[in-house]
Structures are given as C-alpha cells and as structure tokens.
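Exam prep: given the inputs below (a chain plus adenosine monophosphate), describe the expected output before reading on.
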Amino acid sequence: MKILVIGSGGREHALVWKLAQSPHVTQMWCAPGNAGIAQERTEKTEKPVECVNIGAEDLPKLLAFAQEKKADFTIVGPDNPLALGIVDLFQKSGLKIWGVNQKAAQFESSKVFSQKFMEKYGIPTAAAGTFSEAAAAKKFCATLGGKCVVKADGLALGKGVLICTNQTEAEKAVDEIMVSKAFGAAGAIVVIQEYLEGVEVSLHALCDGTTAKIFPTSQDHKRALDGDLGLNTGGMGTYSPTPFLNDAQLAETAKKVLEPFMRGCAAEGIDYRGLLYPGVMLTKNGPKILEFNARFGDPETQVYLTRLENDLVEILEASTSGTLANHELKWNPAASVCVVMASGGYPGNYPKGKPILGLAEADALPHTKVFHAGTALKDSQIVTNGGRVLGVTALGKDLKAAQAAAYAAVEKIQFEGAQFRRDIADKALR
Ligand code: AMP
Ligand code: GLY
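Solution:
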C-alpha cells in the first residue's frame, strides 16, 4: 500500500513513524514533511520516506500528486486542509483519504458551531453566549463579572482565544477581536464562555461515523514557561496517561461526551470519520468541554502513538470505512512523556537555521524517539526551521521513569537558543 501523509510537524512525524511500521505499507510520501520524516523508512520494504515540496494547504497540487503516484491512502495531519475540504475533494476523485470532511471540520473551524451543537445535544460545556455585536458582547461579559474567555469564531492559528479576569480586560478583548479585527474575518462573531477553573486534559477518540473509540488520557502544557507561566503556545510537552481521570472517570466522561456527540452528528447529517479531540476542563462540577478539535493533537500524538500497539494503517482504514467496531484499540501500559524543544523566542519571533547537534545520540537511548517538527536539512546538517523544533519522547514503566528518560535525551541535544520546559509531567507526579 502506498501512503501519502500531509503536514510537516511533530504530529506528522509521529504519524509517519508509526505508519511506516505497518507491514501493509510499501511506499510513503509526506507533503511537505521535515528533516526527521525524511530519515524514516518503511519497515517492510526499507524504502526511504520521500518528502515532497507541496504545502499542506495546496489542495490542487496535493490531489494531482496523489493521482500521479496512485497513492492508495492519504492521511491528513493538520486542521487547515480539513477545513478547506481536502477530504471531500479527494473522495470526489475516488481517492481514499483519512480525516474529517469539511462539514465535520466545522467543529474546529467554527467555535460558534461547536458551542451551539454542545448546547443543543446536552454535551457538558461552559455557560456561553454568541455575539456579532461588540456592545452586546461586552454586556454579557459584565454578567460574568468580566471573568470570561473571549473566542474568535474562526480559525486563528491557535490564537484568537483571550482569557480575561475582569471587565476592563474583557472589553479590551472584545474590541481587539471585533473592532480592531486582530484575527481578521475569524473575529466577526465571538463566543464568550464563563472562565472555568480546574485541571485541563486532552481526550482523543477515533470515529468512523457511528462508532467512537476513546484513547487513554493525556495532558498538554500550553504555556511557554515552567509552572504554566508565559505565553500560550501550540504545546510545550505532553504525557500519557494522566492521573487526573482514572479509567472509570474516563469511561464516564467519554459516555457523557461521545454518545451525545455521535447522536447529534447523526441528527445533523454530519458523517464524522476521523479524530475527535475534545479539550476538557475537569471542574469541581464535573468535566466540561472547552472546545473540539477535528484532528490529532500536537504534541498529544507523539505520546499516543508511542503507546499504541495496533497497526495504525488498519485502524485509520477502519475509521474511513466505518468498521471500527471490529477493532479493539490496544495500548502499551507504559507511560510516555514528550518534551518539546523550541527555538529561542517562540511563540514570538525566533531565528531559523541553527544547527542541531546530538540527535543521533538522543535517538540511540532505549525507548526514546526524537520526533522532528520545525527542522530542515541544509548542506547535510539538520537545522532549526520553526518555532517548535523537536518533540523528544520516551516510554517508561511509569511516568517518573518516562520523564527521566525524556529529559536524559533532551540533555544530549543542543542548538543555539534552545528553549524547553523542565517540568513536563511534574503536575502528575506531585
Ligand atoms: P481553545 O482554543 O478554545 O481550547 O482555548 C485555548 C485555551 O484557552 C484552552 O486550552 C484553555 O487553556 C483556555 N480556555 C479556553 N476556554 C476556557 C474557559 N472557558 N475557561 C478557562 N480556560 C479556557
Ligand atoms: N496540543 C494542542 C493542539 O494540538 O491543539
């Protein structure tokens, strides 16, 4: 089977790495990929994975490439191509592709859509209102005492969510999104949620239109600095499982979320085949959904796929063909920890092209995998090429062992300005 993966981050490296282990796979491409992806080989045929220089949002070129190469199956990593309708496009052309279709991608591409859906189908979420006028939005913030979260409706590159602690901040946030249009057209409408306190966890479920299979728990670290300080980022590290939801609580939460979700999709004519990633706040009044993502998390994927024991090709095919009920997801009981190494300055401006040393030494450590995110090859040297550069991931018999192993690998790696958190998984160990 010939497989095309779309995307270029740590999530896509983890997907490629896991797919390449499948005995079904004879050849792989990744568009556009990165320097780490280009070092992978299919396990069965030992063919190098080929990175092709087509952007993840260039739908016509991706389609032409898949047709020319007769790709048997395409796997989509990031949200943008899904929101642009890549799945619908490929399917119309008779190509098999994994990911949600454009209608289903609205759960991520529109906060208003998700909020209304959750309210209609009784999925536990924050109290919220939807507004297209700044004055009404501000009035609603006042009813929450200004303690609220103002969210631009559309995709805003992971930004567009402003957390406010008082009415002055809330009014400023509304003005920024709705009046100054800091996030462009994405901010024409806003969702304003009450501010929820609690522990935030990531859930993932693989869906096939009727069946949803929940993954174990994981937790991301979104702030740039230790102790959850500093700016919000795409994610600075993850671990799985988290002790904040035990198996029974996970099963109960999954039931409260996935059952109404799948029922609602059926009622609305949404054929949800792909990954559902709810962001969940564990509040003292129970779990509440903050948002839905319609794709694998990054860096959640790195910890999940190092624990997954199934053949990834088989379960993604089942997700596409509606046969997930025939599969049981199997997970290594070991814990996994991923520490993101980022460029100095991230999530603000950062330099590129810094040589990265020690990658082979880190990768050679037992139960360790260095996933690349923003890396490139320059004159046969791997260099930094993005904000998040690497996701250093390790398995251990428990979280403490996995954490020690991940940081031992981080110690082997150097590049100028490297920035990483030293407390990934600490919360779970306290
Ligand atoms: P979102 O993109 O909607 O997940 O928001 C980004 C981040 O903002 C989340 O990961 C949370 O850390 C935080 N957040 C979003 N909504 C809320 C809320 N209602 N209460 C508290 N924190 C929130
Ligand atoms: N881990 C955050 C995200 O993938 O959105």
